[in-house]
Amino acid sequence: MEEYRRIADRVEAAVRDGRLRPGDRLPPQRVFARRHGIANSTAIRVYGELARRGLVVGEVGRGTFVRAAPPLPGPALAEATGTAPVDLQLNYPGFEGQSELMARALAALGRPDVLAEAVSRPAAATGTPEAREAAAAVLARPGWAPDPASVLFAGNGRQAIAGALCALVPPGGRLGVEALTYPLVKAVAERLGIRLVPLALDAEGVRPEALAAAHRAAPLTAVYLQPTLHNPLCSTAGEGRRAELAELLRSLDLTAVEDTTWAFLVPDAPAPLAAHAPERVLLVDSLSKRLAPGLTVGYLVVPGRLRAAVAEALRSGAWTTGGLALAAATRWAGDGTVAEAVAAKRADAEARHALVRRRLAGQALRTSPCAYYCWWELPAPWRAETFTAAAARAGVAVTPGGAFAVGTGTAPDAIRIGLASPPHPVLDEALARLAALAADTGSVRSDRPVRSAPSARSGPFGPSGGNGQP
Of 380, 18, 346, 405, whose CA–CA distance to 201 is shortest? Predict the structure, then answer.
């Protein structure tokens, strides 16, 4: 047997016996190679073999994560479908005609003079005056529009988050985050040596009293929040909650990083937290979800006192955008491409949500008609890990709740379902498989005690709430 397959077998055994769990992040391939005393090329083949076996999933800029346990000996929880897995982990929304729509701006970039200007030099974090004006127009909401002078640019939304956290929080600093949060923030914090402090949630997101208590216990350096279409819970804070958080940031002398990556899907969303406390909030966003992940730009709206530090963090981290991407993004914003894509994706998200409402009726879901994902609190006796593994055997990849959990507490017995990537008929069939699997509780295998029904006040959310049934 070739060496890379033997090593892949050992990793698979670690997944099988629970030493590696769904949602765990594997080390970068170079680190893996060094630890195992193998060449980088061999490590690449190991990771490729693990992906082929359906054990891991890789995402550019984020890393490689354990996706699900391999088939266990004995009867399977679900029959193998014989088809390629339906990936409901990654979330890349698209729509029919998207490429043709985007091609209009790219055609203009084909002119030699325009192309030469776009590729002749790296783009600075400050971009160009035209790019800042276009970005401000993209990010504007009813009741709020950013000052173009406050806009900086990163390669994508993830790099925007990394640059913001690098500028705000020193190694060893404490960053307050939602008790369930975007997994990339966990990975960035680990790399930067930032300590995450989980903050309890309710139906509108972070509870102000939880933020104040955490800061009193040991001062926080900054806070990361998703007030609109929280990922994964789909919650959106109202105007009152945003105003309360803004006043709290001022009284505690804290700065917040507000992630609005998914907020474009909500046509009547409240003005961002940055509108309530522009001097205390650094807003991050991107074109990845609005348009496509292959050619994107990250946006940062930065208070004046932090602009130089954030620009330097982006430059030193090599997180600035490329000139060609910035030029394309500027044209897409100016010619109506972004606005047209946003309208199409809002309609698409509603159509996909209708499939969720039909296939998962009666389940404990936290979702929104505007969202491209939903949070499913699994029926007892299912646990997140066993359901994720069983779903993989049924040909559907989902994300266990532990991937979003912060801290050392018990991970929720829930999964996130990403709705954006598969075609509608494929998504419909995948949801039907998941619904059938959830009903097959008699076949659940777990080496852990069966949990009791959740308390109305249990879990990271604080009092039971959320957006209820879709």
Answer: 405
Contacts of 332 (CB under 8 A, 6+ apart): 102, 105, 287, 291, 338
Tokens representing 341 are 């894509």
**Burial category of 342 from C-beta neighbours within 10 Å (exposed 0-12, middle 13-18, buried 19 and up):** middle
Our CA angle for 62, 64, 65, nearest 5°, is 105
Q: What is the pLDDT of residues 184-206, one digit of tens each?
A: 999 999 999 999 999 999 999 99
Q: Are 15 and 55 in contact (CB under 8 A)?
A: yes
Count of CB atoms within 10 A of residue 465's CB?
15
Residue-wise pLDDT for 236-254, tens only, equals: 999 999 999 999 999 999 9
Query: What is the C-alpha separation between 438 and 417, in angstroms, rounded?
Result: 14
Q: 206 φ, ψ to 5°?
A: -60, 135
H or E element, residue 4: helix 3-16
The CA-atom distances, in angstroms, between 44 and each of 8, 47, 136 are: 11, 5, 41
Q: What is the percentage of the chain residues whose pLDDT exceeds 70?
A: 84
Task: Count the neighbouring beta carbons within 10 Å of the beta carbon of residue 376.
Answer: 25
**Phi, psi for 54 (deg, rounded to 5):** 80, 20
Rounded Cα distance, 93 and 229, in Å: 15
Q: What is the pTM of this model?
A: 0.78
Contact criterion met (CB below 8 Å) for 201 and 248: no
DSSP class of residue 273 equals: H
Please tell me the distance from the alpha carbon of residue 251 to that of residue 249, in angstroms, as a whole number: 6
Percent helix / strand / coil, the chain, rounded to 5: 45, 15, 40
